[in-house]
Amino acid sequence: MCAGEHVPFLAGPRGDGSRARRGRGRARANGAARLGRGGAARAGWCGPRGHPLIGAITVWAMTDSEDVRRTALSLPETVEKIAWGMPTFRVAGKMFVTIPDDETSFAVRCPMVERQELIAAEPAKFWVPPHEASSHWVRVRIAALDDEDELRDIVVDSWRQAAPPRLLESFTAPA
Description:
Blueprint: E1 34-35, E2 58-59, H1 65-73, E3 78-83, E4 86-91, E5 94-98, E6 105-109, H2 112-121, E7 126-127, E8 137-141, H3 148-162, H4 165-170
Parallel strand pairs: 1-2
Antiparallel strand pairs: 3-4, 4-5, 5-6, 6-8, 7-8
Helix pairs in contact: 1-3
């Protein structure tokens, strides 16, 4: 069961290869395989004596809007409020994340200068719809994110722009 043979998809709430919740976004140490939705390990990732790295495999699954919600709500004094028919996340009454209806992207606060640089550098990831062109917000395509660490960095940066000084002084972002 190595070198391209099928490795069963071990995680997921239903055991059928559905969304894995454990270990997402973590670095894969010691060459552990990255599992996709099909559940097959990449060829050549074997442990000692040809045994597959079953215990060492960290399962990766695409980030979704629930991860955005969980990340936002993990920040101090954040509340979720429905506005304009979509979830918005606020700290001290100021919005810092919104998740539009289609849930394929989310919007965060971003200074205009940085926004233009982000869009120019990674247009597949960052964009601004025409009706938000004059605002200090940028949309992020969830499917284009590298991992949950990048999601957390983006959400925390937006939270810092909205949070009051008393929260910023005591806040330390998790490593």
